[in-house]
TrEMBL record:
Chain coiled-coil ranges: 89-123
NCBIfam families assigned to the protein according to its UniProt record, in alphabetical order: HeatShock_HspR (NF047375)
Name recorded for this polypeptide: MerR family transcriptional regulator, heat shock protein HspR
Alphabetical keyword list: Coiled coil, DNA-binding, Stress response
Pfam families assigned to the protein according to its UniProt record, in alphabetical order: MerR_1 (PF13411)
PANTHER family the UniProt entry points to: HTH-TYPE TRANSCRIPTIONAL REGULATOR YFMP, REDOX-CYCLING DRUG-SENSING TRANSCRIPTIONAL ACTIVATOR SOXR
GO molecular function annotations of the record: DNA binding; DNA-binding transcription factor activity
Domain of life of the source: Bacteria
HTH merR-type domain segment(s): 23-92
SUPFAM superfamilies given in the database record: Putative DNA-binding domain
InterPro entries: DNA-bd_dom_put_sf, MerR-type_HTH_dom, MerR_fam
Length: 151
């Protein structure tokens, strides 16, 4: 649902807008979602869909909100899930999306730390070359024979 589906409105967005931009008044959102405006108000009160608000308090729905309204309707009518169950599903999916984003963020941090560690190791290895003392390239064989004391 939220965060996973891309909505394709079939038209371009205004400059600076995307599928999360609140732009539809409640009557248009009701028409686009196939629901009654009063149903949208109820869903808002229940916390199923939280549209944006104008400074005067009017609701403004985004394309993502409309897709979510359609999903709520589908779960209710086709799957027989009650509104409390739908709210729980939405909350869990939002939590999963947040956790996926956190995992991605942490994976990027680990990758950056790995690169930094490799660079630090390379710098340390490069510094060894400056500290090495030249050694003559002679080969010698030394045989050691300890003195054995006879008893």
């Amino acid at each position: 649902m939220a965060g996973r589906r891309t909505t394709d409105p079939g038209f371009g967005f205004p400059p600076g807008a995307d599928e999360d931009t609140p732009m539809f008044v409640i009557s248009v959102a009701a028409q686009l979602s196939g629901l009654h405006a009063q149903t949208l108000r109820s869903y808002d009160r229940l916390g199923l869909v939280s549209p944006g608000r104008t400074p005067a308090g009017g609701r403004r729905y985004s394309l993502r909100d409309i897709a979510l309204l359609r999903e709520v309707q589908r779960l209710s009518q086709e799957e027989g899930v009650n509104l409390a169950g739908i709210k729980r599903i939405i909350d869990l999916e939002n939590e999963v999306d947040a956790l996926r984003a956190k995992v991605q963020e942490l994976a990027e941090e680990v990758a950056a730390a790995h690169v930094a560690a490799e660079q630090a190791a390379a710098q340390i290895h490069a510094s060894y070359r400056r500290d090495l003392v030249p050694v003559r390239q002679e080969t010698a064989l030394v045989v050691w024979k300890p003195n054995r004391k006879k008893r």
